[in-house]
Specification:
Blueprint: E1 2-10, E2 13-19, E3 24-29, H1 36-45, E4 62-68, H2 73-81, E5 92-99, E6 102-107, E7 110-112, H3 114-121, E8 125-128, H4 140-150, H5 152-178, H6 182-201, H7 208-220, H8 222-236, H9 244-256, H10 263-292, H11 297-317, H12 321-339, H13 341-387, E9 394-406, E10 409-418, E11 426-427, H14 428-431, H15 434-449, E12 456-460, H16 468-482, E13 486-490, H17 494-497, E14 502-510, E15 515-521, H18 524-534, H19 542-560
Parallel strand pairs: 3-13, 3-14, 8-12, 12-13
Antiparallel strand pairs: 1-2, 1-4, 4-5, 5-6, 6-7, 9-10, 10-11, 14-15
């Protein structure tokens, strides 16, 4: 549930915080007061487009913060999947700080990406914008709605279709790529034989280049290394007059002459003797290294030539020796295919035929699920439409077959409707008006809400193009949805506002040099006054308030049923 919304420096909002509750939360306000800012600010927090015009005049940044409570297991699992630590009480705080050219998203205080916010928000909130019902005019969206209704039952079948489709596509691509005439085969064979021979003759060993480069680097710097080691050996050995080894031996001899006189002197002698031994060990190791590092010019030339050969092969066939070896295996496999080309192509055809058969079977299973659920959804949507004051309505979800198979199967899904007696069913976009489309979308949202685990639904002016009795039916439908979900609804109709469990007003106030939009919750009497205004009353007369009270009582009677 969306517990609170905090907005700062966004458009006309200086800083406001509003706390919502469960059930039906209604937001009303004068035209131009900024009702769309609510949807806009929530959308921005969840990754919507931000531009400098949205930033309040004189402000350096804008901030939107959403606090969700009562998260379920799926939300907790998604947080863990996103490497975020869930709060013990299930609280999820999503925020976005916006500056020109820069945005910072956070979930529970940790900086995240817009993609991560979007993934999580799909489990938290569903937003129905002012013009979303227009999406019903696009037939491709009808399948998405049906698939959403099918739910978990469809997922496994859809995944099998996608896997089989991808397999068929890869096999077709392989057949196209492998298709060669005699001239092309001869050319490919000659090139593959040359490249394979070059790789095989090199007798490559994985990791050889790294070891060789290390040795070569030492050889290239051999003179400088030898000079430095010789100097170090001289100054730490016993042969040089002022060498550390000779000086240390003399110091040890002097100490031994008196070490027997005092126990502490004996301890000092032991320490110096250990140092003398360590220095002697160092000199022996250094001498051994100098002896091992000697090399002949022929050895250097051979290493250089081998490195050049390896680097040429890596430039032609791969970034590493392992890549070059793998490329050689590919050339070898290509030669085998060319030498047995007809059998290979026949094998590909057989694989493709088997894959296409699996795809057809998977599509059939997927289609059966859609057809079966379409019949149930059709009945539920028709009942919802009747309740939304479509007095004579016929509705059907037609599931046909397309000529081509896609990753979503071979189904062609379209919503058909007839709103007048005797008229044939026609595509939704050819028949329904804007107000009717809005009610169809509400019916869809109502039916899907029963299967949707998303807790919070936002409707922005779902009442477009309706009035009177139809508006009452829409308000009753919203109340029904609000029994199992938190619903936030922006409206200008008193019939819908009367059904509110919580009523908020969006107000705009102006001073000489400042305009501010704010949101606040209305008390009972204030809500009646706002209902009177929505009913068209300029003044809060007793008659206007009486009409508002009667409308509120009518809504309350519905809620008691």
């Amino acid at each position: 549930m969306l517990q609170s919304l905090h907005v700062k420096n966004l458009a006309l909002m200086e800083e406001t915080e509003v706390e919502f509750g469960g059930g039906l939360n209604i937001l009303t306000g004068e035209t131009g007061a900024g009702k769309s800012l609510l949807i806009g600010s929530v959308n921005l927090a969840l990754g919507g487009k931000f531009d400098r015009e949205m930033l309040r005049k004189g402000a350096d940044y804008a901030l939107v913060e959403l606090v969700f409570t009562g998260g379920d297991r799926r939300v907790e699992e998604k947080l863990i999947q996103l490497d975020l630590e869930p709060e013990e009480d299930g609280t999820v705080i999503v925020s976005r700080k916006m500056q020109v050219g820069k945005s910072v998203y956070k979930i529970n205080g940790e900086t995240v990406t817009a993609k991560q916010v979007k993934e999580l928000s799909e489990l938290l909130i569903d937003i129905h914008g002012q013009h979303e019902h227009q999406s019903l005019l696009k037939k491709r969206n009808h399948m998405e709605i049906l698939d959403a209704y099918c739910g978990e039952e469809l997922l496994a079948a859809a995944e099998k279709v996608e896997t089989a489709y991808r397999e068929c596509r890869e096999l077709r691509r392989s057949m196209e790529e492998e298709s060669m005439d005699e001239e092309t085969k001869a050319r490919e064979q000659a090139l593959a034989e040359f490249e394979l021979r070059e790789i095989e003759e090199a007798r490559l060993v994985p990791g050889e280049d790294e070891e060789l480069e290390k040795s070569y680097r030492l050889m290239v710097n051999g003179k400088r290394i030898t000079e430095s080691l010789s100097e170090s050996y001289k100054y730490t050995g016993s042969d040089f007059a002022s060498g550390a080894g000779g000086a240390l031996s003399r110091a040890l001899k002097a100490l031994r002459s008196v070490s027997s006189l005092d126990e502490r002197l004996g301890e000092l002698e032991e320490q110096l003797a250990e140092i003398d031994n360590l220095l002697a060990d160092y000199n022996r190791e250094l001498a051994g290294y100098m002896e091992d590092s000697e090399f002949e010019e022929e050895e250097f030339a051979a290493a250089e030539e081998r490195l050049n050969q390896l680097n040429r092969l890596k430039e032609k066939y791969g970034r590493t020796i392992e890549d070059v070896i793998a490329y050689g295996h590919e050339r070898e496999a290509l030669l085998e295919r060319i030498n047995d080309y007809e059998a290979y192509m026949e094998q590909l055809k057989e694989k493709l035929a088997a894959a296409e058969e699996r795809l057809e079977t998977a599509c059939g299973i997927l289609s059966e699920i859609r057809v079966r659920n379409a019949a149930v959804l059709t009945g539920q949507l028709k009942a919802a439409l009747v309740h939304l004051n479509f007095l004579t309505v016929e509705f059907e979800i037609a599931v046909g077959r397309t000529p081509d198979i896609t990753a979503k199967g071979y189904d062609d899904v379209e919503f058909l409707i007839s709103t007048n007696p005797g008229e044939a069913l026609k595509p939704l976009g050819q028949v329904a008006s804007g107000g009717e489309l809005s009610r169809v979308m509400l019916a869809i949202k109502t039916v899907l809400a029963g299967r949707d685990a998303v807790d919070t639904l936002i409707f922005d002016e779902i009442d477009a193009g309706i009035s009177g009795r139809t508006a009452w039916r829409v308000s009753e439908e919203l109340d029904t949805v609000a029994h199992g979900h938190q619903v936030l609804c922006i409206t200008h109709l008193p019939q819908i506002a009367a059904m509110a469990d919580r009523h908020f007003v969006i107000e705009k106030s102006s001073s000489q040099d400042n305009t501010i939009t704010d949101i606040r919750r209305l008390e009972e009497e204030e809500s009646l006054g706002e209902l009177a205004r929505l009913l068209g009353s300029d003044a809060l007369t007793e008659a206007a308030l009486s009409n508002a009270r009667e409308m509120r009582d009518q809504a309350a009677a519905h809620k008691k049923k």
